[in-house]
Amino acid sequence: MTDQNQHQAPNNQPRQTARQSIWGLLGLAFKLLKSGGAIKVALAGASFAAYSYVFNWQFAVLLIACLVFHEYGHLRAMKKMGIKTKGIYLIPFFGGAAVQEEWCKTRWEEVYIAMMGPVYGLIMTLAFYAIYLATDSHTMAAAASFSALLNLFNLLPIYPMDGGRVIKGIAFSIGSRIGIAVLALSIAFGVYLMFTFHLALLGLLTILGAVELFASFKERHFTQLAPLSAFGNVVSIAWYLGTAAALVAIIWAVATSDVVGAQIPAVILNT
Predict the structure, then answer these.
(1) Are 168 and 183 spatial neighbours (Cβ–Cβ below 8 Å)?
(2) What is the C-alpha to C-alpha distance for residues 2 and 10, in angstroms, rounded to an integer?
(3) Counting Cβ atoms within 10 Å, is residue 140 exposed (0-12), middle (13-18) or buried (19+)?
């Protein structure tokens, strides 16, 4: 009997450990699902897989890092303005989104939150470019160029992209009618680019912007926000144009190098 017990004890221990591990994983999965973390992890994994399939895993890592840092800029701005957030969500072939739970209270908050994404993106782009200058790494040169293009794309004056939100804050600070007219033009511009360059993603964003614009108009959200002052409008325009100019400068600087593929963003700008 003693010998049998001695032989059975080691066989039971792995089973108990396995059960504990399974219950532990189930408990962790429940917590993630409850907090929305499981959705974020699943979307991040799907984004990595999609970009790895289209490009390669190294480029996928750099692209996701750019997206996360860009959205983190929005998230930090929201928290600084006292706005509750739900976190960052990566969406395959769509990019990412920093989700807020509350509306902005002023046009300045709207502009500030919209601009901080590209600003953080510019910081990462400059870091990539600095590493390229120090090490002559072609990977870092390509990363700087594509990071600049990604953030410049977000600054297009098309609602609901970052640039469109900045233009919205400025236009509605001047007047409601001007704001509606400018946003309508920005959506029309998005439709024009979609058909001209066959950008289905831009078309989807434009549709979402039109839906959000209609919903906001019905709730009279436009008239509830404190407008920018004349000085605030000037600062917002200068900030917007300065950030865009810095991103364009980096794209052209990298395009003059001998890095294979780094000229693609410059070619896109020429188009």
Answers:
(1) yes
(2) 13
(3) buried
d(CA 28, CA 31): 5
Which uninterrupted H or E stretch holds 87?
strand 85-91
Q: How confident is the model at residue 38 (pLDDT cuts 50, 70, 90)?
A: confident
Task: Tell me the pLDDT of the chain averaged across its residues.
Answer: 82
Q: Are 257 and 141 in contact (CB under 8 A)?
A: yes
pTM to 2 decimals?
0.78
Residue 104: helix, strand or coil by DSSP? coil
Among residues 208, 153, 158, 205, the alpha carbon closest in space to that of 185 is found at 158
Question: For the residues of 194-247, what is the DSSP string, one character each?
Answer: HHHHT-HHHHHHHHHHHHHHHHHHHTTGGGGSBPPPHHHHHHHHHHHHHHHHHH
Q: Which residues contact 175 (CB under 8 A, 6 or more apart)?
A: none
Structure tokens at 125: 């782009």
CB 204 within 8 A of CB 145: no
Helix segments in 98-199, DSSP class H: 107-135, 138-154, 162-174, 176-197
Closest CA to 60 of 52, 70, 68: 52
**Phi, psi torsion values for 159, nearest 5 degrees:** -75, 135
| SS3 state of residue 156 | coil
